[in-house]
Amino acid sequence: MPPKVIPIFAPQAAQTSGCGAKGGSGKSSCGSSAAPGDMSPEVWAKVKDHPCYSEQAHHHFARMHIAVAPACNIQCNYCNRKYDCANESRPGVVSEKLTPEMAAKKVLAVAAEIPQLSVVGIAGPGDALANPQKTFHTFNLIQQAAPDIKLCLSTNGLALPDHVQAIADLNVDHVTITINMLDPEVGELIYPWIFYNHKRWTGRDAAKILTERQMLGLEMLTAKGILVKVNSVMIPGVNDRHLAEVNKAVKSRGAFLHNIMPLISDPAHGTHYGLTGQRGPAPQELKALQDSCEGGMNLMRHCRQCRADAVGLLGEDRGAEFTSDKIAAMDIAYDPKPRQAYRSYVERERRDQEAARASELAAMAGQAGGDKVLVAVTTKGGSRINEHFGHASEFQIYELSGAGAKFVGHRKVEHYCQGGWGEEEILEDVTAAIKDCAAVFVSRIGLCPRKDLAAAGIEAVDAYAHEYIESSLIAWFRQRLEKDQPVAATAA
Amino acid sequence: MPYKIVSEECTNCAACETECPNDAINEKKSMFRIDGALCSECIGYFDEPQCIAVCPIPDCIVIDEKLPRYAA
Questions:
Q1: Same domain for A309 and A363?
Q2: Where do the domains of chain B lie?
Q3: Chain B within 8 Å of A81 (Cβ-Cβ)?
Q4: Interface of A with B in 162-201 (CB under 8 A)
Q5: CA separation (Å) from A252 to A42, A215, A249, A279, A478?
Q6: Of A130, A133, A198, the CB nearest to B15
Q7: Taking CB atoms and an 8 Å cutoff, what residues of chain A touch B14?
Q8: Chain B residues touching residue A75 (CB < 8 angstroms)
Q9: Does some domain include residue A303?
Q10: How many domains does chain A have?
Q11: Tens of pLDDT along A261-317?
């Protein structure tokens, strides 16, 4: 099979010294976004292909979760293990469980079809380490079957200290621990019980044990040089004020990345929080908390809170193409060449993109700073503005300032274009989702939605179709500064 | 030998299977069941029945009224 590469054109760009050549923007984006400028070469080597650990990588690389770990050892108030609907996208949900053997075959099948695949993770649907035999047996099989694919796991941390050695022995470089609290008084509002040492613990006792095990596990992992991402669910009124403290605690223990995620709470999911009307945070509340935690530690802002059996780039789920019956009928051989070709292609793209970004930043240097501006971008990957407005199912949000373009989050929407026709109601929702943005960057957009967006104060920009996101945004921002400040420019 | 799994409630997560000290819980045709001849209610092993303590679904594992209580 010939190497599969996303068919997007690669414009001519000057060669540079490499990804490390950063402009004078300081620490950009979620920290996880940047090229080696703000991390050691060893760490960059570990995260550059991992879509969850690097904002930069998530434009290029795909992950898959294999649902081999159904059992869990704790109960969280935001989780309900009873329903698994194929149309639902949230952690803890899967459509079918897999045996380790089926999982290994699924990995080969997905790898053969999606050359962007770089990471296989076990994230449940229960807890990876509450099912240690299944989890480690699966990792062993995958390592034998597809040695170029990275392994990753996610856990609540309760059983973690017992398995750190096994994790290190399997060369698992990335472990995610979900830590929602340090204070047992907060914990008892989140965890009704844990199962530990052959006993069900409730209330503050349960929360205290969980915290101790999480902190111990975190310290043991970082002592071994394993990169740890900490996930925290932001629950307004429960732990939202407490998460800054959690941030400090995990930072001081060497966590690499902190991912503060919004609570997903819907009565239809049947979770305790859903049924009792506990609300999730508004995007602005989430961003304010993330902003307050930034500084000295990388903050993840590109998480899509995917299912425990998700397949594809973040934000897309191709799981339905790889169901057990479809995989059973496939005859698949291991072939790393398409992935190697794709990775070299991404390396070249990254150099070009960094060069373009650095040159746009240099052109802006010396301009009066101007206010920060939010803009929305539609993309289907590759760090390019390459999605039609009507086909976008999410917008990536960037904050523009004199320091450059910083990725600050994403907003999910329904496709505006349904079967060739735009739907007015959906357009209203889309407009509301990006109402705080000055512009939306698209590869194409129809006349009607362009007018409606303009009426809402949002400029639709298609002048940068198929070009790199960051350099285009900086170029646009620079032109806007020049337009807005003719007086200041003359005075200077 | 008194516990049974209410199969309509069970999510097949298998958490109970690994915790049972008697290996009394097995999956057959995607259904988990407790072998009444092997279940000891965890008496002599633990303070509480492990399957119930770890099960995420309330009232999924219950006393099987048809069987006599286990006597240690």
A1: no
A2: 3-63
A3: yes
A4: 195, 198-200
A5: 20, 11, 5, 30, 38
A6: A130
A7: 70-71, 131
A8: 56
A9: yes
A10: 2
A11: 999 888 888 899 999 999 999 888 998 999 888 776 788 888 877 777 788 787 777
Residue A340 lies in a domain: no
CATH no. for B3-63: 3.30.70.20
CB atoms near residue A3 (< 10 Å): 14
CA neighbours closer than 13 Å in the CB half-sphere of residue A22? 18
Query: Tokens 């998700």 sit at which residue?
Result: A310
Interface confidence: ipTM more than 0.90: yes
Cross-chain residue pair A73–B54, CB shorter than 8 Å: yes
Length of chain B as a residue count? 72
Name the nearest CA neighbour of A349 among A59, A113, A112, A62.
A59
Supply the pLDDT for residue A91.
Answer: 58
Identify whether A10 is part of a domain: no
Residue A424 lies in domain: 353-491
Which of A73, A81, A133 is closest, CB to CB, to B11?
A81
Q: How far apart, in Å, are the Cα atoms of A427 and each of A392, A446, A457?
A: 11, 12, 14
Which residues are paired to A259 by β-bridges?
A231, A300
Considering only residues 93 to 122 of chain A, which have any Cβ-Cβ distance to chain B shorter than 8 Å? Answer: 97
